[in-house]
Design brief:
There is one protein chain. By secondary structure, this protein is α/β, with parallel strands linked by helices. The protein has a single domain, classed as P-loop containing nucleotide triphosphate hydrolases (Rossmann fold, 3-Layer(aba) Sandwich). Helix content is 43%, strand content 14%. The protein contains 11 helices and 7 strands. It has a 7-stranded mixed β-sheet with strand order 3-4-2-5-1-6-7, sandwiched between helices. The longest helix has 17 residues. Bound molecules: adenosine-5'-triphosphate and magnesium ion (MG).
């Protein structure tokens, strides 16, 4: 029997709360360290995830959503054995506007249809989607098709707001879905101070069992280093081990209950 691809969206209602960092490192650990066959889809026009994984881009996700190309044609192989990627570019913003106008294309379910076709190939175990922070048409598409949503949160009160918004959006799409979305909140930048401890306490109080037990520590130097264009290596795959890489690996083990 062909395997069904699990769809994992990484999204929050707040900008700059580690969505891209989490997508890149969780997906890379899942693929390279735990042997899963992974497709990453970037849906953010700033294309940070794309520039990490793709050397060049013939097509972007908007071309697939608007039926200009088949999904297969947009899949790029990456330098890592188990990781493929569909990239994004700033054209996505115009493409989403075009999709909004075209009701004959069933605009709310375009993404789900594309993902179903990819899943039918039976190649991928999981698809990770790096999202923006907006409650836009793409968000509706993604929340209608995702099996799991990972919500990154920094250990501050602004992130708390981002988690709240996300939970609300998930709640709003739930009547249109057949099943519940698995939802996990991840503390992806835990600082060592009392304010940060207090924010984490609030997040745990509000979201209880949804909050992952593993926290990713704040480690500015390592994360900034990994974003240098010349390096382009997810820090979970870096030769030199770091605390933040170990935390992400532990987080992946917790999320998927790997041994
Ligand atoms: N554990 C960490 N320690 C220190 N810095 C971190 C950590 N995780 C992420 N960062 C930094 O936080 C910044 C924001 O991260 P990132 O780009 O992943 O967020 P984002 O949610 O994708 O942002 P956007 O909303 O712009 O897409 C980046 O500069 C990143 O290097
Ligand atoms: Mg991002």
């Amino acid at each position: 029997m062909k395997k069904r691809m699990e769809i994992v969206a990484v999204k929050s209602g707040k900008g700059g709360c580690d969505k891209t960092t989490a997508t890149i490192n969780i997906a890379a650990a899942d693929a390279v360290l735990f042997g899963k066959k992974i497709l990453i889809i970037d849906t953010d026009g700033r294309a940070h995830t794309t520039s990490m994984f793709c050397d060049s881009l013939k097509h972007q996700i908007g071309d697939v959503l608007l039926d200009r190309v088949n999904a297969l044609e947009a899949i790029e192989h990456t330098r890592w054995k188990n990781i493929d990627c569909i990239g994004c570019s700033e054209e996505i913003n115009d493409d989403v506007k075009e999709l909004e106008k075209n009701i004959f294309m069933d605009p709310m379910h375009r993404f789900g249809k594309v993902l179903n076709k990819i899943s039918e190939m039976g190649v991928y175990d999981r698809c990770y989607i790096d999202c923006n922070q907006d409650p836009d048409l793409l968000a509706v598409n993604i929340l209608l098709s995702a099996d799991r949503v990972l919500i990154p949160a920094r250990s501050d009160d602004y992130s708390l707001e981002g988690v709240h918004k996300m939970m609300d959006w998930i709640h709003q799409v739930s009547p249109a879905r057949d099943n519940e979305i698995k939802t996990q909140v991840m503390i992806t930048d835990k600082e060592r101070n009392l304010e940060s401890d207090d924010s984490v306490r609030k997040i745990k109080l509000l979201f209880g069992d949804h909050v992952c037990k593993t926290f990713v520590r704040h480690q500015a130097k390592v994360v900034q280093h990994s974003y240098k264009p010349a390096i382009r290596t997810p820090f979970v795959l870096a030769k030199k081990p770091s605390g933040v890489a170990n935390d992400y690996i532990q987080l992946v083990k917790e999320i998927y209950e790997y041994e």
